[in-house]
Amino acid sequence: MGFVMLRCALCLGVLLAGSVLGLTITSTGPSSIEKAGGETINFDCRFTLAPEDTGPLDIEWTLLASDNQNRDQMIITYSGDRVYDDYYATMKGRVHFNSPDPKTGDASINITKLLVSDTGTYLCKVKKAPGVNSRKILLTVMGKEL
Questions:
Q1: d(Cα 126, Cα 135) in Å, to the nearest integer?
Q2: Cα-based distances in Å from 51 to 20, 21, 78, 85, 136
Q3: CA–CA dist 115, 33 (Å, integer)
Q4: Cα–Cα distance for residue pair 82/117, rounded to 1 Å
Q5: How far apart are CA 28 and CA 30, in angstroms?
Q6: Phi, psi (deg, nearest 5) at residue 101
Q7: SUPFAM superfamilies annotated for this entry (predicted)?
Q8: pLDDT at position 15, please?
């Protein structure tokens, strides 16, 4: 009987530990989007914080490598209350956070004047220790650039 009680207590502990929500990505938009060259895309990435998320806020947007021979490409970040958008020369001047203050819960970005070469999987990662969460969106840019 004691073993069964201990086992149930351990199972309950695991379930409760897994139920801590922490930082949550609340965006529910499409995970795959098609756009024409020259258009603008809005990648939605809204989040909420939990009381236990007390560390500094870091937001990273990355274009994931299409195969394991290439490196993922950081395109824009928010860290230490500053935006860093000069990581990827191809997108310089074309990528911006929607919100002037992303720490309000909006890590969404816009990319303007889309190029066929912008096609790929984009990852929004929001971190505020101990919370971490992310969202992937596949973009396909079709046709000729304007």
A1: 9
A2: 11, 10, 21, 29, 25
A3: 14
A4: 27
A5: 7
A6: -135, 85
A7: Immunoglobulin
A8: 32
Tokens of 26: 């609340």
Which structure tokens are listed for 42? Answer: 């809005």
- Residue of 138, 108, 6, 116 whose CA lies nearest to 47: 108
Q: For 22-45, how does the pLDDT look when each residue is reduced to its tens digit (9 = 90+)? A: 999 999 989 999 999 999 999 999
pTM of the model: 0.82
CA distance linking residue 47 with residue 107, whole number of Å:
7
Calculate the dihedral angle through the C-alpha atoms of 129, 109, 70, 119, rounding to the nearest 10 degrees: 150
List, in sequence order, every residue forming a beta bridge with 128; answer none if it has no partner.
57, 131
Residue 141 has phi, psi (to 5 degrees) of -105, 125
CA distance 129 to 127: 6
Cβ contacts of 69 within 8 Å, gap of 6 or more? none
Q: Which amino acid is at 2?
A: G
Residue 146 has pLDDT above 90, yes or no: no
